[in-house]
Amino acid sequence: MGFTTLLVVLFWLKTLVAYFVDFKLGLSDPFQFLIVLLNPIATTVLLFGLALYLKRARFFYPFIFLIDILNSLLLYINVIYFREFTDFMTVSTMLGYSKVDQGLSGSSLALTSPHDILYWLDLVIVIVLMLTRRIYIDPRPVNKRVALAVTSAGLLAFSVNLTLGEMDRPQLLTRTFDRTYVVKYLGLDAFTVYDGIKSGHTSELRSHAKKSELSGILKYIHGNYAAPDKNLYGVAKKKNVIIIHLESFQQFLINKKINGQEVTPFLNKLYKSKSTYSFDNFFHEVGQGKTSDAETMLETGTYGLSQGSLFTQLGNDNTFQAAPAIFDQAGYTTAVFHGNVGSFWNRNNTYKNLGYQYFFDASYYDTSGDKSLGYGLKDKLLFNDSVKYLQHLQQPFYVKYLTVSNHFPFSLDSEDSTFKTPNTGDKTVDNYFKTANYLDQSIKEFYHYLDKSGLAKNSLVMIYGDHYGISNSSNKSLAKLLGVDPDDWNDYDNAQLQRVPLMFNMPGYKKGKIEHTYGGEVDVLPTLLHLMGMNSKKYLQFGTDMFSKEHNQVVAFRNRDWESPGYTSVDGTIYSNKTQQEIHPTGKLKAKIDKMQAHVNEGLSLSDSLNTKNLLRFYHPKGFTAVDPSDYNYSDGLQKSEKLEKKLGLKSTSLFSRNGDKSTQGLYKTDAPELNHKETDSNRIKITNQDDTSGK
Ligand code: GP9
Ligand code: MN
């Protein structure tokens, strides 16, 4: 009993370290403080108390250690996860973890902190004390009645906890759209169990879903439809679409100077060019799925999930009516270029369901030695090394480049940059400008090639930032650089920083400008389709064309906060954008705000039900052929495109064919120092291609 108590107390203490040092639980009053102090006790007593049922010492000790180690591991991975995502790890994230762990190894190391030793120290000390016999192994079994009493005490403590929680936050468990609440009131273990039950429930949901559930969704989407602006509909008809995904790139980088030097001079030029429609009130809307959420929204016009990543959870078997398939059926070739391993975010499977014909992942590039960083091939090399694949694709094409160098922890090798970073005292913030500058240079080099190869004049280049790079916990260090007093920094400011760039660049076009319309990632697909002269009406998309006069400017964040031209809502608090102050709306204004909130809630939950219940399998838009993922194999992209070139002969529209069957690689100019590095055996990422069964 004494030993169990000791372990329980030690575990309780380190949970408190996590609560008060690492997790931001948002404790607003002494009552909540009390609940947080108590909540680890109940579940720890319940779990550790299980060992008391084992009568023999040689079972009891290993078992209680096992529980302690597993529980410490759960606590610790949540600490690490929280530092990057400001959120807790769901069971589905954990189950999908193997799909995303590549490369995380690099940054999880950077996410550790010296005090992390506290999460393991107790176990080490207890083991040392046992080995040195300061703590004796006690062979006397605990009476079964005592074990039962401990369990009952644990259960009682838990119900007290739940009651206190419900008192402070009614409907705690029924409304859980915010994981922090559950952890705050019930603790991490309870959250994990609760979440596990919920995931089981989702798979149940899918098997019972019916076609009739589509009707509410259809009603919402038809009611929201925004007809295209006639002047812009089809301006990019038949052009190639080149999408450049700017990793972790926020809008504040545009036109930003550090030590008098522009961070992204090339993008700045594109941003204000007459050949570009740029948006300065465009927001990312990602949740835990980060990059993959951005991809979900841009490719499908539906939101990511409220927890975890849609790609990893549903990407294997969901039905989509997504951009790659829509473009494919309009005669386009579709491809993704990405220098990370294909299984990251489960892309290798999800892309097949989206209808991508080609996926050039890390296995297509030399990523050895210094050529890659934790998340894959450096951007300058990605663009350069993709030419040999791009030039064989039939035009028109719809292609996407997923960059990676500007990713947390924002490290580069010294030979890659001479950019002078600021000095905020926060390394993450400082280095962010350097990697953003590197990304800018890589795009400049790519554009040079687009010009030289002639691609520029028949392409629409869409450039966007996927999500924040600087997380809310570092925003205070950033504040100074943005000319704001860090002490005045608040939730309103955090929300404003979720702006990311969105540009539609059509080289040669003259009527571009900077648009101030508010919009988010879910709005991109209908906007793009209309520019291409493609009808979006028959598809179930939750956003609307941002160029349309009927476009709804309320932007939903994944946690149900929202942004609009006049007001910002964070955690139920409303701010006026004009005064940047908190307001307490009444009367007409309150009704208006409530309506905006209801719109946000409805859109998110209908999108969730569409995706989690896989309702698109019941929906058949006219003229759209369902995607068959088994049509695709991503291991022989080059051979496949070359074969097609030969078959088409004179009709081939690939850049290579149009260039008299000569490579265009010579037109590419890059100053990437790694170009001269020999291929080595060392690699910062692990390379696999699951479609490659050749055994090589
Ligand atoms: C990895 C890259 C990063 O392949 O897309 O994803 P993120 O960590 O930003 O979600
Ligand atoms: Mn990303």
TrEMBL record:
CDD domains: LTA_synthase. Residues 654-696 are annotated as: Disordered. Its main location: membrane. GO terms for molecular function: transferase activity. InterPro entries: Alkaline_phosphatase_core_sf (IPR017850), LtaS-like (IPR012160), OpgB/LTA_synthase_biosynth (IPR050448), Sulfatase_N (IPR000917). Its EC number is 2.7.8.-. It is a multi-pass membrane protein. Residues 671-684 have a biased composition (Basic and acidic residues). It comes from the Bacteria. Residues 685-696 have a biased composition (Polar residues). It is found in: Cell membrane. The chain crosses the membrane at residues 34-53, 60-82, 117-137, 146-164. Pathway: Cell wall biogenesis; lipoteichoic acid biosynthesis. Keywords: Cell membrane, Membrane, Transferase, Transmembrane, Transmembrane helix. Residues 239-534 form the Sulfatase N-terminal domain. The keyword Transferase applies. The keyword Metal-binding does not apply. Belongs to the LTA synthase family. This is LTA synthase family protein.
